[in-house]
Write a structure and sequence with these properties.
The chain is mostly helical and 206 residues long. The protein contains ten helices and no strands. 78% of the residues lie in helices and 0% in strands.
Length: 206
Amino acid sequence: MFSPSVLWPFLLATVLLSLVPGPATALVIRSAATVGVLRTLPVIAGMEVGVYGWSLLAGAGIAGAVAASPSAFTALKIAGTLVLVYLGVQAWRSAGRAPLEVDPAQDRRWAGFATGTITNVANPKLMVFCLAFFPQFLPSGVNPFAATAALAAITVAVDIAYYTLLSALAASARTVLTRPRVRTAMDRTAGTVFLALAARTATLTR
């Protein structure tokens, strides 16, 4: 379906885009440093469900309809803003707790799945990205939905590999990252990042 002249540039672009810091990066680092790699894997899985979901909707043309509808786009923008505000406030609240204190809900290994999923599903920037990115690599004469689904699967695989490595690195530094001052600084930094992204999402235009 894809020639090397299309696949290799797409793979390179996907890897480079995965390295760009964003809410997913902050979420993975904070989770891994707090609860370890195993409990961060559900967070990563949830985020990639959001990525793949928006990719499929883009391939089916549904995401385009949402982007074209002022009311639907505004609703999604508000939802995304609220999710990021929630994550930011949660991070700032955690900064005042004991460094090894973990919410009871976090004791369940798959508790982070919903957080990861909602973070990306309610992200209008991700929707716009899927609409703009994948069509650039679709060869002529192919089924747009099937081709987008295949490219999205590659994107998800790259994301999972990168975020798993990132979580392992963060977890390996857990002894340092869970020191009271470091943990407080990390939570406040993550909270500030989430709130800044919330402000940016709130002002996003189609």
